[in-house]
Amino acid sequence: MPTNKNSHSTILPTSYDRKKILLTTNNTKGSKGFEFDINNLVTSIKITENIEGPGLNFTFSLGDTENFIERSRLSGNEKILVELERDAPYGKEKYSIDLRVIEIMNFVKQKRGLTTYQMKCVSPHIVDNQVVSLGNAFKGSVGSTIKNICLSSLGINKEKLEIDTAVSLSRGVFPNIKPLSAIKLLIDNTSDNGTPYYFYETLTNGIKFKSLKTLLNQEPFDTYEIREASITNIESDKGYEDMRTRIIEMSSDYSASKYMGLKNGAYASTSFFVDVGNKTLNPLKFREQFQYSYDMNTSIEKHKPFPDLNQNNLIKEKGLKDFPESKKFFINLNTESYDGSDNLAQGLSGGNLAQMYSHLENMEFQTHNILIPGDFRLNVGMVINIRIPATSQEGKFNREINTLQSGKYLITRIEHTLDTHEYLTQLTIKRNSSTVDLDGVEDIK
């Protein structure tokens, strides 16, 4: 499919080359077998990556003038192979993606000779997950157990896996649950220096199991900024880069709600440990109180995401960190489960569960949705830097930077939109800390 490219490289960062979209039918055979290239029927593709999702989601929109849906008897579970290419100043890119159709939806007879519908597709291991249940015992590091599940139960190629196996040891029995549910069970009971782990799939870099601490300590992939359209020759390498790193649109969910943060344990909480083996709860021995403490190793920026309220806006004459009873956690332990081995939930002691919730809540401190030219190299779990200009009274772009909003962010969701004209990428980016010291006194003139 032609997509506006010249002989030496893709003209625009929004261009790409869709080589083929091969659909393998269930039992309909054509002149070339069971495979049909539906490239000319597909009007757009939406691909979603989510750091909290174990697989990719694809939505293909089709404009069918050939009555293909009836002739091929589409009914779901078909295989799809997508091949994408791009030539750019930084090199040639080629991607091949295998999928399964799980739903055919939004069927509309637009007019005589045209039918539109959508095919929702997922990664193959999402379908494989539905036909397997785990009821076996497990022992070893959490990362190794997750890797074994991926290889043996989900059939994922080991070349696609990037699993952090240097994780705490665990031992237990899976209670007849699906493989992805087993992975979630392990993740929910594991932390890295009090930060949660994520298991997620990326479009071009495989499947990963990484902690928030590891992700936040990456170097930024690149810097993106809001600026006027470049007047540089767009066919030059510099023009390409200027356009590639420009933020086209931006909207923000400025989640600076201390009201919800207090309720959900962002700043302080109390954990109670119940020994289900002995049926006991000792408030003096099995209670831990948590207060937020800034840690540069688990924060993406230099300052905590809230002021201490030492003098102004106190709540009951106290600061935000002085309410450990605002959120209570109850953690089940079982001292009778194994000899000389910790219960799975033991990893949540030492304040780890409270810290995990604190990190998850504080990751909502600042959220932006930015639209940029498409980039296959960008994946969830990466860190980027953004530069937002300060607002000027004249309404023009200001060379001064809005320091409160600019800085480093973690990509938590990506929606790639590839239609017949252009490729755009919508990023959801978040962070758990501030570039500005919110305890500092600022004089406004």
Q: Can you describe what's shown?
A:
With 445 residues, the protein is mainly beta. It has four domains: 17-125, Thrombin, subunit H, CATH 2.40.10; 133-211, Phage tail protein beta-alpha-beta fold (3-Layer(bab) Sandwich), CATH 3.55.50; 219-255 and 363-431, Bacteriophage T4, Gp27, baseplate hub, domain 3 (Elongation Factor Tu (Ef-tu), domain 3), CATH 2.40.30.150; 258-361, no CATH class. Helices cover 14% and strands 34% of the residues. It contains eight helices and 21 strands. The chain has helices at residues 68-71, 124-128, 142-153, 179-188, 212-216, 237-244, 258-263, 352-362; strands at 17-24, 35-37, 42-50, 57-64, 79-88, 91-111, 114-122, 137-141, 161-163, 169-173, 197-201, 207-211, 223-225, 249-253, 268-275, 287-291, 328-333, 366-373, 383-387, 407-419, 423-431. The strands form four sheets. Strands 1, 2, 3, 4, 5, 6, 7, 13, 14, 18, 19, 20 and 21 form a 13-stranded mixed sheet that branches. The chain has a three-stranded mixed sheet with strand order 9-12-11. It has a three-stranded mixed sheet with strand order 16-15-17. The longest helix has 12 residues, at 142-153. It is globular, with a radius of gyration of 25 Å.
Topology:
Layout (H helix, E strand, L loop, with lengths): L16 E8 L10 E3 L4 E9 L6 E8 L3 H4 L7 E10 L2 E21 L2 E9 L1 H5 L8 E5 H12 L7 E3 L5 E5 L5 H10 L8 E5 L5 E5 H5 L6 E3 L11 H8 L4 E5 L4 H6 L4 E8 L11 E5 L36 E6 L18 H11 L3 E8 L9 E5 L19 E13 L3 E9 L14
Parallel strand pairs: 9-12, 13-19, 15-17
Antiparallel strand pairs: 1-2, 1-5, 3-4, 3-20, 4-7, 5-6, 6-7, 8-10, 11-12, 14-18, 15-16, 18-21, 19-20, 20-21
